[in-house]
Amino acid sequence: MTSDGLKTFIMLSKLKNFTRTAERMFVAQSTVTNRIFELEKEIGKKLFVRRAGGVELTEEGSVFLNYAVRMTELEESFIQEVNSSAKYKKTLKIGAINAVYESALYPVISNFIRKRKDISTKVMLGHSLDMLQMLQDKIIDVAFSYVPLKKAGFACEEFYSDRLALFASPRINEYKNGIRKAELANLDYLLCNFAYGDVGVFILSLFPPRHAFGFEIDNSGKLIHYLTDGFGYSFLPCRLAESELQAGLLEEVRLIDFATPAIVTYCSYSKTNAAACEFLQTMKEDSQPN
């Protein structure tokens, strides 16, 4: 099972076309065909099935895709760590969900970089469950997520707690005196719920079953632009919308007959990872009052 074979498989799963995959990877189409053939031969299962205009992953191919992505990430992580070891004493790989990075992590990481120039630092952004899986696979050293990690050998601490609020542009907000739960279904609601774990389930519970949302996005940080441009309403962590509130680009909609749960951000790391422990120690020292 070669690195090129895995990368070709991942690319073909995205493009679903042998010709386009060959063009994207700057190889002959026969090379793509041979790599997939060898991979299927080694695994003993068909990974793709031909369809009109291209191919689709088989059920076995869909399962294998997750492992292929993780294997290539591990390989790349290893290569980077080996290369950086010549210049730096340690490497630190931090994974975080976008909303936490944008609202709270930059000052923490920037302070650490200034203090520890002997440590090579890499930041990766993604979703909570992806970050926790990468932590367990040792692709990253520290994970900031909305989901706690409860597993032996790992520590999980609360990073901070935030309030969930409903926001809209002052130009389109029709609920200046507040909104009732029953009125939410009438909103042009911009959905970005999956990132908040149990809070995401709570947001969906506010709407009728199988409610059709007119807009969805998988990155709460990018949702801000649609809110300030007046496309609708959305629940967000207050810290994420702090600067837009101060600038008058957004306003909070008062909730009349219901309340929202707190959004808790967790910091998870391996108890035996020296670089992670040093980072957490620095973070705690910086948070202490002078």
From TrEMBL:
Keyword match Transcription regulation: yes
Keyword ATP-binding (UniProt): no
Residue intervals of the HTH lysR-type domain: 1-58
Molecular functions (GO terms): DNA-binding transcription factor activity; transcription cis-regulatory region binding
UniProt KW keywords: DNA-binding, Transcription, Transcription regulation
Family in the record: Belongs to the LysR transcriptional regulatory family.
Name this polypeptide is given: LysR family transcriptional regulator
Annotated organism of origin: Candidatus Borkfalkia ceftriaxoniphila
